[in-house]
Design goal:
The complex is a heterodimer of chains A (147) and B (337). By secondary structure, chain A is mostly helical. Chain A contains eight helices and no strands. Chain A is extended and about 75 Å long. Chains A and B meet through α1, α4 and α6 of A and α7 of B.
């Protein structure tokens, strides 16, 4: 009897190896944790340099974004990310990479139609739904007068 | 004149000849186990071009001009070229061939395009419509990634079922007479879709199409897997190859495991080259057929090879819209002199 789509779907699932979850989690923890520790190191450094609290809060992500952009530009970041997975995607480094990589990739189509149009092709949904959920939570706080 | 045999297969009694063939590949493929087989390995993935699309055109043009020159003819002697690639509107092909001034039949069959171009070229030659024609395909990892997936420098993890698009091109010159391997029969496949939606598991999507076409061909020609030195699929990768053998055994009672090879498993060292489930792309099977296979048929080391090119016919739009992946497979019977 011919294999049905349902049976085939089971066969395909069985034949396809799963992602190495524990290995991925381990490296995500180590490398993601390292990036967060770097953030802490930067905080101490900026505080030592005499920046006030607000300035420190801005300077840390700016520095991490700059480092990521540089590593993306020289073609190293994607190699680290292949091992790190969520460890580099979740911190602000993932966001920076998702903006810089299409900006570089679509340079061939020109500064406006290429880099300009495509720059937020990956980060766009994060911005859209980040902003939308911020508005939603803002409304909840406003209506229920939580502050 | 071509003659239909059985329901789906077409015999080519004049046995069109492949009088020249060439395969060129990129750096990563040149570091793989078949490095010695290829005519040229580009060390620079950009091929000195300003864009990845132009780079793909450059490798295809290189394969075509090398095949024509190895056949001992000139571009003016070619009556028609059958060509295709993976890029939107097949620009890899159109830009590679625009200066050659050869009548072009542009094809899209995704990774099945090498089998499709060989099939149509040999059919037209056998029918007497063409004296000499060229069949070619190409793919480029970087142009395919940016069209179908993410920018190259994007930091993501590839799932284990994913296949690696080969940077490669193969070209074959088909003539109505001469010295070289023959094309004896072709089967144009039917679309098969068993509901696989994961564009990162194209091997699983394409295996049912390969199974149908192989079964059709064996039925129509009344032959068995043992009658062939190799049944070459291109390119199912590791998962698709496993599923193909399971489907054929379960549904058709055909065991091809003794003679089956897959282009996606041949072009890279799967354990060392970090390509997940293996290679893919029109250029992958194209380059293997136009080097390893045809060279061994020419020397007589191989006698009979059934080449089954498999293609996943989705686009990034259909995948985003949640559609399953229609797949196709075309078979070409290649034999030694």
């Amino acid at each position: 009897m011919a294999t049905t789509n349902k049976e085939y779907s089971k066969m395909a699932k069985k034949a396809s190896p799963p992602s190495p979850k524990f290995k991925n989690m381990f490296f995500a923890f180590i490398i993601g944790g390292f990036i967060c520790c770097m953030g802490e190191v930067l905080r101490f450094a900026f505080e030592k340099a005499g920046l006030n609290e607000l300035e420190v809060k801005n300077a840390i992500p700016v520095t991490l974004i700059a480092i990521t952009a540089f590593l993306t530009g020289i073609g190293v970041f994607d190699k680290i990310a292949r091992v790190a997975g969520a460890g580099t995607i979740v911190p602000i480094t993932g966001f920076a990479n998702s903006v810089v990589s299409p900006a570089m990739e679509f340079k061939a189509e020109g500064k406006i139609m290429g880099t300009g149009v495509q720059m937020f092709t990956i980060a766009g949904p994060v911005i859209v739904y980040g902003t939308a959920s911020a508005v939603l939570y803002g409304l909840i706080i406003y209506i229920f007068k939580l502050y | 004149m071509p003659q239909r045999v059985g329901r789906y297969t077409i015999n080519l009694p004049s046995r069109p000849v492949i009088i020249g063939n060439a395969a060129v590949v990129g750096k990563k493929e040149g570091e793989g186990p078949l490095a010695e087989e290829f005519d040229h390995i580009f060390d620079d993935t950009t091929m000195g071009e300003a864009s990845w699309e132009k780079a793909e055109s450059a490798i295809q043009r290189e394969a075509v001009t090398r095949a024509i020159s190895k056949a001992g003819i000139g571009t003016a002697d070619v009556d028609m070229i059958f060509a295709g690639d993976l890029l939107n509107q097949c620009i890899g092909t159109t830009f590679s061939l625009r200066e050659l001034n050869i009548p072009l039949a542009g094809l899209y069959g995704a990774c099945s395009t090498m089998a499709l171009s060989l099939a149509l070229g040999s059919l037209m030659t056998d029918s007497g419509a063409l004296g000499t024609c060229v069949a070619t395909t190409s793919s480029h990892f970087c142009s395919a990634e940016r069209q179908f997936r993410y920018p190259l420098e994007y930091g993501g993890q590839r799932p284990p079922a994913a296949q690696w698009t080969a940077t490669a091109s193969g070209a074959a010159v088909i003539k109505n007479q001469g010295e070289g391997p023959h094309i004896d029969a072709v089967t144009i496949g039917r679309i098969q879709d068993m509901g696989i939606k994961d564009a990162n598991n194209m091997g699983a999507a394409m295996a049912p199409a390969a199974a149908e076409t192989i079964a059709d061909f064996l039925n129509d020609t009344n032959t068995k897997p043992e009658d062939y030195d190799i049944i070459l699929t291109g390119d199912l990768g590791a998962i698709g190859s496993t599923l193909l053998k399971q489907l054929l055994e379960k549904d058709k009672n055909i065991d091809i495991s003794a003679v089956h090879k897959d282009g996606g498993l041949m072009i890279y060292d799967i354990d060392k080259q970090d390509v997940n489930s293996g290679g893919s792309g029109c250029g992958c099977s194209g380059a293997i057929v136009c080097s390893y296979i045809l060279n061994r048929l020419r020397s007589g080391e191989l006698k009979k090879v059934l080449f089954v090119g498999t293609g996943a016919l989705m686009s990034s739009t259909s995948s985003k819209q949640g559609e399953s992946i229609p797949a196709i497979a075309h078979a070409v019977l290649l034999s030694c002199q």
